[in-house]
Design a protein that fits this description.
Layout lengths: L1 E3 L4 E3 L2 E3 L6 H6 L13 H7 L2 H15 L5 E3 H5 L13 H6 L5 E7 L5 E7 L1 H16 L1 H14 L4 E3 H11 L5 H4 L8 E5 L5 E5 L10 H5 L5 H5 L3 E2 L2 E3 L7 H11 L18 H17 L4 E3 H5 L13 H5 L4 E4 L6 E4 L3 E2 L2 E2 L4 H21 L4 H9 L1 H5 L34
Antiparallel strand pairs: 1-11, 2-3, 3-10, 4-6, 5-6, 7-9, 8-9, 12-14, 13-14, 15-16
Helix pairs in contact: 6-16
Length: 426
């Protein structure tokens, strides 16, 4: 990929121009009807590949590690399925068994004599999870600031917990942030009931030191005159071979010269039918993606922010109109919005420590999946099945159970509804 610098004096993370633009000019600059084509970016698609599986696996790791014995029967894990984002036609046990380097399987009998699969973390996965906890502790203030800045982007400094739950992976928040993070900062956050009767998280006070966007921070080396005129432009980066027509090029140059409205500033005076208003929307999501630790999020997560961010209908069209700023990946049967400037091909330029932890989990998953496909766990599984007495006493079934694509005749957990207490083997 190459950078395109489309106005005045170019810098990698910011642009400048010296034209003062008044309020009347802003309102008269109508929204130009320009459509830019979507072009596949293999490098950024590779960044998204496997993200859904990694996210689900890491969430399961968090769930298992928080259980009393770090081990749970499948019917307990199934209660969290809605938060995992897995395909509806994929059984949870099938997914878990694909990664024996992370999840170890055993069996117990319940009070009715039904054999129930239980899953726990392998020692390697548990050690890596403890490393992750250490990283979270070390970067706690950074994660809190990301959450504070997100709330400062909203009109009421509040978001529904349901919305934050959808974003917690992207923001790097712990899986159990509601119970083990927010209560410790009662001087910063408060739980409130929103107008739609949902429970929300509210930021108690505004912090001017945080109300500076990433684009403004990167523009500090520019001249005072440029900053005074709010004439900031976005880094533009297209996929190699992207053909931009002259008409679109000219429009984009003029659009880049429009005044920049901070995403933390009141924009109620802007006419939503203008390019200036559109540039403000681009600025909001440019900032929002910078708050995520991997500079990307699913498009549906963005759609849920329209009301809290006071955005017009069909505001996500800015992603299609500005493919040099945002890339929409269509991998894994979903659409993911990626901030182009954050990546050098597949490499994330500014890496949060949690990203390294996630990549190590992904490496463990790949190894487990390949080993299982080569039958390296098959022999252990057969031994576990032949000796039922070992299963009763908690003999490990090799971490795989039955074939990864075929459910066992013994696998009755999908219809298992007992709430009897089960003690999994340690």
């Amino acid at each position: 990929m190459g950078y395109w610098f489309l106005c005045g004096k170019a810098k990698v993370f910011g642009f400048s121009c010296g034209l003062r633009r008044g309020f009347n000019y802003q309102q008269s600059f109508s929204l130009v009807n320009v459509k830019l084509k979507w072009v596949k970016d293999k490098a950024l698609d590779a960044v998204i590949a496997g993200e859904r599986e990694l996210r689900a696996a890491c969430n399961l790791v968090s769930i298992l590690s928080s259980s009393p014995n770090c081990c749970l029967p499948i019917y307990h894990l199934s209660r969290h399925r809605g938060q995992l984002g897995l395909p509806h036609d994929l059984k949870l046990s099938t997914f878990i068994r694909r990664y024996p380097t992370i999840f170890h399987e055993s069996y117990v009998f319940d009070s009715g004599g039904t054999r129930v699969p239980c899953f726990e973390l392998t020692p390697e996965a548990l050690n890596l999870y403890h490393e992750e906890l250490g990283v979270v502790r070390e970067s706690l203030m950074d994660l809190l600031d990301r959450l504070r800045k997100l709330l400062m982007l909203t009109k009421d400094r509040a978001l529904a917990l349901q919305t934050i739950d959808q974003l917690k992976w992207d923001l790097g928040l712990p899986y159990d942030y509601r119970d083990n993070l927010i209560p410790h900062y009662a001087d910063i956050f408060s739980l409130v009931r929103l107008p739609d009767d949902r429970i929300g998280l509210k930021l108690l006070s505004w912090d001017d030191t945080l109300a500076v966007s990433q684009l403004e921070n990167n523009a500090i080396p520019q001249s005072e005159e440029d900053l005074k005129n709010n004439c900031l432009a976005f880094p533009i980066r297209f996929t190699r071979g992207f053909g931009l027509k002259r008409k679109c090029m000219e429009w984009l140059k003029e659009w880049q010269k429009l005044p920049y409205t901070s995403p933390y500033a009141d924009a109620s005076h802007l006419d939503p039918r203008t390019d200036v208003s559109e540039k403000r929307i681009v600025g909001v999501f440019h900032e929002f993606l910078h708050l995520t630790i991997q500079k990307k999020t699913q498009r549906q997560n963005v759609s849920n922010l329209r009301t809290p961010l006071s955005l017009p209908q069909k505001f996500t069209k800015v992603f299609e109109r500005h493919p040099g700023i945002f890339y929409i990946s269509k991998m894994s049967d979903t659409q993911t919005v990626v901030l182009r400037e954050a990546y050098d091909y597949q490499r994330l330029i500014q890496r949060h420590p949690l990203v390294d932890i996630r990549e190590r989990f992904a490496s463990m998953m790949r190894k487990g999946f390949l080993d299982r496909s080569r039958g390296l766990y098959k022999k252990t599984t057969e031994v576990g099945l032949e000796d039922s007495s070992k299963i009763v006493h908690g003999h490990k079934a090799g971490g795989t159970g039955f074939d990864s694509e075929v459910e066992s005749d013994y696998d009755l957990f999908s219809e298992y509804d007992s709430d009897d207490s089960i003690h999994c083997p340690s």
